[in-house]
Queue: 2 jobs
Job 1
Amino acid sequence: MTTNDSVITDYTSTDDAAVVRLDNGKIILQTVDFFTPIVDDPYTFGQISAANSLSDIYAMGGHPLFALNIVAFPIQKLSHTILSEIMQGGADKAAEAGIPIVGGHSIDDNEPKYGLVVTGEAIEENIWTNSGAKPGDQIILTKPIGTGIISTAIKKEKVSSSIALAATESMKTLNKKASEIAQKFSPNAVTDVTGFGLVGHLIEICNASDVSANINYKQIEFLPGAIDLVSEGIIPGGSKRNLDHAEKFTVFRSSLSSNQKLLACDAQTSGGLLLTFPPDDAEEFLKAFGAKAKRIGEIVYKKTYSVAIDN
Ligand code: CO
Ligand code: CO
């Protein structure tokens, strides 16, 4: 692979965005994400996908600058109105983030796909990575877990509209506020919770930081309906794979049921920020952000495991 002295993080670290230093000392961040529809409503899908794409910039402590659309769409099979609605959802979410969508690329494809390439900027000293977590740090999560389970239930039409709505609201919420408030304090490690699930992303932080994490399962907040849906057998393939992977690095105390393990490993779409702060900063962040953020555990010195979850 070709390397370049200006590249600060790339895909070899498990960070959320590429970080490149420009000659004038400024730092640019860049990230790309796109996926197939997870809800029926095209406008909402556009909003969720854009919020998810923007999240990696927020998870690095950066500010987004502009974005490009990535679109795949079955031009012959589906109405152009649907495509317009998807892109309007994306544009409105980008506007909420304070940035324009300045271009993009689309292809004809059997299954619709949508997402953004997002470019952002940051101050080098303030960039958050996965590798800075320290023993004693408090672990905070800013959105409830369960979007993977509920998205699967939506596809199977096995979910009430109120449960679907709560999950949709959570997925389309930008991590902008969480990021901006966290920038006033000093998080030691930050990532956003997406496909690898809560435990998977926490394992990344622990392994990159050479520490371990103790999680209190009771402190993890789940979206309404998620716990019931798992007990009804709604288990996304990605979440099952996450659990298989997590078990190599995680001690699940015997009081945890297999459904509880799956819930903790549920693959998220547009999940919240997962932050580790020194105790005083954690307190201040929780006060400033409000009740939706939860303290779920603590970073400890490196153990034989990466993550332990107690009930
Ligand atoms: Co990420
Ligand atoms: Co990403």
Job 2
Amino acid sequence: MTTPQPSASASRAARGEPVLCVEGLQTHFDLRQWGFVRVGSVRAVDGVDFTLDAGETVAVVGESGCGKSSLARTLLALHRPTDGAIRFDGTPLNGLSGSALKAYRGRVGYVQQDPYGALPPFMDIQRILAEPLIIHGVRGRAERARRIDAALEEVGLTPAADTRGKFPHQLSGGQQQRVVIARALLLRPAMIIADEPVSMLDASVRVEILELLRRVQREHHLALLYITHDLSTVRHYVDRAMVMYGGRIVEQAPVAELLARPGHPYTEALLSALGDPDADNAHRQREVPGGEPPSLIQPPSGCRFHPRCRHAMPGKCELEPPPPDFRPRPDHRIACWLHE
Ligand code: SF4
């Protein structure tokens, strides 16, 4: 059994401080004609606020194109924020470079959507896993081999000797994703960002991989940000859920509260489409509103959901964006004028 790693994050949690603090985050991408004339921008992340505690799992849920993967990549420092602040362990992420950026990347594990694409096909597993250890200064072949074997065995690839000499194409999709999770754990991170970690896997192994993520998250007291389009996977695996729409968080709450008492019409629509038998929303009309997800280049004015919302209030919703923090309960935040 794995011994939980003592971490600075755990002591921060004891002081009630979040590992990750995101305020007013915007990530926009310029649209350029002929490669240089700016003709607009894609507002992929457009004013996002949340915190993530040590030992906490938070889901970001939303349909394709809502900006959730851009949010993940901004938090991984793969995109530069246009505005706003990200603090990790109390340190601002904006403007990190060189060794400070490298140290940050060593403390944040990344589990990608496509495990085969995430693993270089021309390298065996031993070499794939040795690379981050070498980059982050873990010296000695024996020490690296010990840590690689421990990581492989921790994710259920036992004995490690059966896996480390193989190439990615010799593993199943589920085994490849286990290797990706082992790589994310190798440097003993404080936080893991898992971007649709099971959406490309066979249905038969999805639960196993989600169970694995939950187990390692608990054993290492990790902060885990779980990005998904599938609300049905959050109930048993996360503490809190945030619903994203049009580049913004429209609702966030503890997961049981969100599923039982959704407050935003978009969250209700997602749950209705799911037909969740346990959700206390049976009195709601079970249909998904028509229309397309909003353009992130020219988003709708006011509330971005108003063109699809059957509760939209003329003269209000299409004019004024609702603030993100109407609170029916202290830990439940909703961006909707219905809760004013
Ligand atoms: Fe619907 Fe208005 Fe609420 Fe937006 S603010 S979700 S349009 S009721």
